[in-house]
Amino acid sequence: MKIFCSRANPTTGSVEWLEEDEHYDYHQEIARSSYADMLHDKDRNVKYYQGIRAAVSRVKDRGQKALVLDIGTGTGLLSMMAVTAGADFCYAIEVFKPMADAAVKIVEKNGFSDKIKVINKHSTEVTVGPEGDMPCRANILVTELFDTELIGEGALPSYEHAHRHLVEENCEAVPHRATVYAQLVESGRMWSWNKLFPIHVQTSLGEQVIVPPVDVESCPGAPSVCDIQLNQVSPADFTVLSDVLPMFSIDFSKQVSSSAACHSRRFEPLTSGRAQVVLSWWDIEMDPEGKIKCTMAPFWAHSDPEEMQWRDHWMQCVYFLPQEEPVVQGSALYLVAHHDDYCVWYSLQRTSPEKNERVRQMRPVCDCQAHLLWNRPRFGEINDQDRTDRYVQALRTIFKANHLEDKINIIEKRPELLTNEDLQGRKVSLLLGEPFFTTSLLPWHNLYFWYVRTAVDQHLGPGAMVMPQAASLHAVVVEFRDLWRIRSPCGDCEGFDVHIMDDMIKRALDFRESREAEPHPLWEYPCRSLSEPWQILTFDFQQPVPLQPLCAEGTVELRRPGQSHAAVLWMEYHLTPECTLSTGLLEPADPEGGCCWNPHCKQAVYFFSPAPDPRALLGGPRTVSYAVEFHPDTGDIIMEFRHADTPD
Known about the structure:
The protein has 13 helices and 33 strands. By secondary structure, the chain is of the alpha+beta class.
């Protein structure tokens, strides 16, 4: 059965109704999930397996049956590990029905149907008793309910309920314990993701400074965590102000509370500076002795950086203090970690928390609206002085700088509703846009500027200038160091056949939106260019949006050996013929193909299908064929890239 779904089109600004398969929503969720990434996480899988074996052994050594409760079973992998380790029975809870159905098939294919019961419910709905989902409480609790922030997926309420209703007192738990760590730093780069800096503009009257509004400056910022691949942030971009501080631990084998709490650590700053940002991560210990540990620590805090596991489903956290504060080397302070049932935030205190009633403060909330309107990269983009200078340079070629205090009129209307009366009967001589729109996800969604320009065409005077004057779509074929894992089939995971999950993801990826390119901030995901970048399409903003599609097709030679994992696409905006802003590559690739990406923008990644075998290395000249169409009626860009699997 087909269903109609409404979708806001970021490119045209219109709301569209599209006919979709009835299973459209969950196919999108599966396609965009991190299941493949988790199954490829060797470190995670091995540590869980070791911890489960140890827990089952401890229960057996006490002469008890090993009854396992696996909350959030996903593919059923941890349940199969438990049965293989000797568990007598396992109750595998999975609330997402398509995933629960897949788990049933995977369990059956691996021959564990008689020892594993998949229960398609939320764990808080599971019942225990003669007529219940479980005849009795379990004595081993296995979970993987964690996100980058540890508790953001509701781990605390789920554990709290499980201990009260589903498992025995002082049960064995895998993982046994989690510890959250923090490090205070000064970082102009990361702080620029949270606050607006004064903007300096050189004019004919000298340097002018645009100061951000006071309410934006004083706002504590967005309450949500900023999760990033912290290993890709250069150590030159921050100054460490504290040692790594263990902030709090959670023992999962005992009753867990989801109530709000705070935990403080006294420290002496390692150097004087401005306290701005808290870097945070966690580790989990799979056993009570802490011998089996899985850590998210970045390379400078990792016990063995050479053996670090790349993963995207768990990264590291960046938290912003409500306001930057000066700190002095050697003068003791208290870093306080606050959390409720889903979120963590930090504050800095100068006196002992026991003597300070302000410590139990509420989660910070944006009161200036800017942090709700713009994401972190957008703040960084606005704060980019080089970018501002390019705009100023382009404007100088059109008109000389003027005093504008009394020459700005804000018209709060959609462009298509603009009237001659709004413009006081005058024609527009300069149409200026960034372009940037908060609804944009993929690089070409900002072509909405072109539709705005078309909507106001009647209000443009003869010879009116439009800036940017044009845009172009560019691409390059790349080999990822790690990001390929999120699309690569797993097949076998720790000895268990999970082909059914691979097939499920592949079917989900066959749906329309899942075949499109995905937005990724590639400064976090190193890659090598295998081809030279090339221009695919151009969009002339001096003219209205055309009635006919814009099309391009051709082939590109791969000039470096390697795995062609994907094509990366981005937009370049031509403010004037001499001044261009790129949302993708900022400079030519180095001799080895290393890429420098715009850190304020997400690039579009079109993964090749089928995914190339990561163990093979293709050599010799190869080609990639492409066909790209821009449909002006819908604003969609339809594309197809194909790579050669063997040398020419």
